[in-house]
Design a protein that fits this description.
The complex is a heterodimer. Chain A is mostly helical. Chain A has 14 helices and no strands. By secondary structure, chain B is an all-alpha fold. The radius of gyration of chain B is 24 Å and the shape is globular. The relative contact order of chain B is 0.13.
């Protein structure tokens, strides 16, 4: 290590290690405290907030599970993300591929039109978006919310697909066309599977975005039976303002799916993040 | 023959682009242009009739709305802190983590973890730390330096918001900087070491210039995200006490969806936010891209 970085030997290396450990503890501290105290009774939390629970009890979780209508909220979140993700990947891959392959002004103009919006902050469109969504009757439904995510998400996905398609040899399309393959079949059978690496990146980035987005669901979902996990958690926080035992349990429940996903897929997630950021 | 081929090509292009374009036009383009148009009207949620008012909304926002101007100033201060701290910490973490052997993967996993969580969840969790845990530590562990009203006193809640935002954002940039560091050829660093360069010198003269393009991205991403900061503030302070920690995004949200429902006026504020982000990021990209070439 000291050879690699030319640091002042062992002392420097252990100093770096120690500071990383401190930073890691700091990073994990709030999560640790949340989990720890969600397993205590309110009384136990008040007497010693740092101590281990004397006896593991899951009453807070049962409480939070019921108050946030956990399974339904989870199901709603999955519906929103599934609709959004399917649409984004399918439509953006089709558009990005075709625009990348077609020369000419029209193609360039369309691509420009999609990229144009990448700098527009959500807050600049949200007010009018609420009105349009009411007019189009997509407000107040989880599927409708998924549709809106398609509209907001295709730009970046098209940008990434457009760049990636350039690395796929054109001869492949031409050979397929010679073999009598139609446009759509060519795309779905030949091209789309080749896009898998960038599709994975796009899936990860968009899934994280939709899963963790708070403001758009807050504006679009009006009925609490349609609430996503975040909205239910927020509602519980608003209603039981000082009942930290239940709140913490609901926070742990809300982050559980993401943390599990992260620990399983972290290699792909970390690569996808770096990839997506550098390319766009 | 040529013409039909071109015609077919155009038809195929439009066919493939149409689904994406339809959703994009309805939920992105229309609201974007609509927002710009509404910003020139007195549209509000209560009255179905509205008319053009020219730039009156803009004039009011910039001269006659102290809460909005305060939120702009608060956001500017927040952005400044975030751009410097988030990138500096992320670079240090990236360099340190890269210097590790087997523990590298562990540290990377841990530091990135908060990015997986919504800042609503992270914000509530930190609220517990800032209110319950910190007062416990002051009382029982005698950590007097924590004895502040982290949430109730705006001069401290600013730092609470910065801490939580850094906690949630640093790992993302660290991953980008790690990717950049891995692109720095080892031979360059070894050559510098042979020439007698110390660790700091190698970092300053070799590593930093080599990862400058990543720095451009890092600063760009931080500018973009912190001007739009909403979730962490919403969860931690809700903009309070009063409106003391209100960021611009929260101010716009409150104007539109709070009690006044002044959609036209809020649209004008949103346009102002867009223009600020647009101008600052363009200037930043220009400035840093030219320096990239030199470095």
């Amino acid at each position: 290590m000291s050879r690699r970085y030319g640091l002042a030997g062992r002392a420097g290396a252990s100093l770096i290690f120690a500071s990383l450990v401190v930073a890691a503890l700091f990073t994990l501290f709030p999560i640790y405290m949340g989990v720890l105290n969600s397993l205590k009774t309110e009384g136990e939390m008040l007497t010693d907030i740092l101590a281990f629970p004397s006896k593991l009890q899951f009453g807070n979780f049962a409480d939070a599970f019921e108050k946030t209508d956990y399974l339904r909220s989870l199901g709603n979140t999955v519906v929103v993300a599934a609709v959004g993700l399917t649409g984004i990947i399918l439509f953006a891959a089709m558009a990005g591929y075709k625009m990348s392959r077609t020369p000419g002004k029209l193609s360039g103009f369309l691509f420009g039109l999609f990229v144009l919006s990448m700098l527009i902050p959500f807050h600049s469109i949200m007010i009018t978006l609420v009105r349009i969504s009411k007019d189009l009757a997509v407000q107040g439904s989880t599927v409708g919310l998924g549709f809106i995510y398609i509209g907001l998400g295709v730009s970046m996905a098209i940008f990434l697909y457009h760049g990636f398609v350039k690395s796929i040899p054109r001869e492949l399309d031409e050979a397929a066309v010679v073999d009598g393959c139609g446009e759509l079949r060519l795309f779905f059978v030949v091209v789309f599977p080749l896009l898998l690496p960038v599709t994975a990146t796009i899936a990860i980035l968009n899934l994280l975005w939709m899963w963790n987005d708070f403001l758009l669901p807050l504006l679009m979902l009006t009925d609490s039976k349609d609430y996503t996990l975040l909205l239910s958690t927020n509602m519980l926080f608003g209603e039981y303002n000082n009942d930290w035992a239940a709140i913490l349990a609901s926070l742990v429940l809300a982050m559980l799916p993401v943390i599990v996903l992260y620990l399983l897929l972290q290699k792909y997630i970390l690569n996808g993040i770096a990839d997506g950021a550098i390319k766009s | 023959m040529r013409l039909t081929k071109n015609g077919k090509q155009t038809a195929a292009l439009l066919g493939f682009v149409f689904p994406a374009l339809a959703f994009y036009a309805a939920f992105m383009l229309a609201p974007a242009f609509g927002g710009a148009a509404y910003s020139l009207t007195n549209w509000n949620g209560l009255n179905p009739a509205y008319g053009w008012v020219g730039f009156a909304n803009y004039a009011e926002a910039l001269t006659d709305d102290p809460a909005f101007l305060r939120s702009l100033a608060f956001t500017a201060k927040f952005v400044a802190f975030m751009v410097v701290l988030q990138n500096a910490i992320a670079i240090v973490l990236a360099v340190f983590v890269e210097a590790m052997g087997r523990s590298k993967a562990w540290f990377r996993t841990i530091f990135f973890m908060p990015n997986m969580l919504s800042m609503i969840i992270g914000g509530f969790m930190w609220l517990f730390i800032f209110t319950k845990v910190s007062s416990y530590l002051v009382e029982k562990a005698g950590m007097a330096f924590l004895d502040r009203s982290w949430i109730g006193d705006p001069s401290y809640s600013f730092y609470a918001i910065v801490i939580v935002s850094l906690w949630g954002g640093v790992g993302y940039l660290m991953v980008i900087y790690i990717a950049a560091l891995q692109g720095v050829p080892r031979s360059l660093k070894e050559a510098a070491a042979i020439d007698g360069a110390g660790a700091w010198q190698t970092f300053r003269r070799i590593t930093l210039p080599m990862i400058y393009p990543a720095l451009t991205i890092g600063v760009f991403l931080t500018l973009n995200s912190s001007f739009k900061a909403f979730d962490a503030v919403y969860a931690l302070t809700g903009g309070g006490p009063g409106r003391a920690t209100q960021v611009v995004a929260l101010n716009i949200f409150e104007e539109a969806f709070g009690f006044t429902n002044r959609y036209g006026y809020a649209s004008a504020k949103a346009m102002i936010l867009f223009l600020i982000i647009f101008v600052i990021t363009i200037v930043q990209l220009r400035f840093m891209k030219t320096r990239e070439v030199e470095a």
